[in-house]
């Protein structure tokens, strides 16, 4: 059973994710784990099945989100609490303007990162408190949790070797930081096995994709069209 939403957080007007017409999937894991690749593979497969598919990411899934992404990942002098609040602001806007409307009309939404990233990165690795960060983000999203969270688990040292281009603020953190992130993701998955699927991200991308879609298939609603 998924953890309860803390008392005092207003529920979604249309109910929790399980009561919405669509299906909400988040992809989590450290940098270089292949989240974007798996999101795009899922998008093609789900489209072929006849679903309306919304592929998105956090931060940056909306116009405002792209501004916030630049600030939080590439801005100067962003302290941990400001960082946590910027992510929560992006998430609140993302859910209200993109994720929730898509779920209400029956679409399948696949996001590259969601609130578990904030719990692992800011709550655990930044020492701001996992429960505090989780509560902040549940409040920001009115308690919306994914039907399925796929944790693409990978040794951070391997993830660093996979990255290309100029690293952002989080990618530049120490190996120890990223090891703490990985361990907390695994702790989150162990605490909520009904929501999480843990996949070895060191496997070939197609093998990872097949493992995810085999798990996801029975959870999908009938195609909206």
Descriptive account of the structure:
The structure is a single chain. This protein is α/β, with parallel strands linked by helices and 225 residues long. The chain has a single domain (19-219), classed as P-loop containing nucleotide triphosphate hydrolases (Rossmann fold, 3-Layer(aba) Sandwich), CATH 3.40.50. It contains eight helices and five strands, in the order E-H-E-H-H-E-H-H-E-H-H-E-H. The chain has helices at 35-48, 63-74, 80-104, 115-125, 130-140, 156-162, 175-191, 205-216, and strands at 23-28, 53-57, 108-112, 148-153, 196-200. Strands 2-3-1-4-5 form a five-stranded parallel beta sheet, sandwiched between helices. Helix 2 (63-74) packs antiparallel against helix 3 and helix 3 packs across helix 5. It is globular, with a radius of gyration of 16 Å. The two termini are 31 Å apart. Residues 1-15 have low confidence and may be disordered. ATP binds at residues 29-36. Phosphorylation of dTMP to form dTDP in both de novo and salvage pathways of dTTP synthesis.
């Amino acid at each position: 059973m998924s953890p309860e939403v803390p008392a005092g957080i207003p529920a979604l007007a249309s109910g929790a994710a399980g009561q919405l017409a669509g299906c909400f999937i988040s992809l989590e894991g450290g940098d270089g784990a292949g989240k974007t690749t798996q999101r795009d593979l899922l998008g093609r497969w789900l489209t072929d099945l006849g679903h309306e598919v919304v592929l998105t990411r956090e931060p940056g899934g909306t116009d405002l989100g792209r501004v916030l992404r630049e600030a939080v990942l590439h801005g100067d002098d962003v302290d941990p609490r400001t960082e946590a609040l910027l992510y929560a602001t992006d998430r609140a806007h993302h859910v209200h303007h993109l994720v929730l409307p898509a779920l209400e009309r029956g679409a399948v939404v696949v996001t590259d990162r969601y609130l578990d990233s904030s719990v692992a990165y800011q709550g655990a690795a930044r020492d701001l408190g996992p429960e505090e960060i989780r509560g902040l983000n549940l409040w920001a999203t009115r308690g919306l949790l994914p039907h399925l969270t796929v944790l693409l688990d990978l040794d951070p040292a391997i993830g660093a070797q996979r990255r290309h281009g100029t690293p952002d603020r989080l990618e530049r953190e120490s190996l120890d930081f990223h090891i703490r992130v990985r361990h907390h993701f695994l702790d989150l998955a162990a605490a909520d096995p009904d929501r999480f699927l843990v996949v070895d991200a060191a496997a070939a991308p197609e093998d990872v994709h097949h493992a995810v879609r085999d798990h996801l298939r029975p959870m999908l609603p009938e195609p909206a069209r």
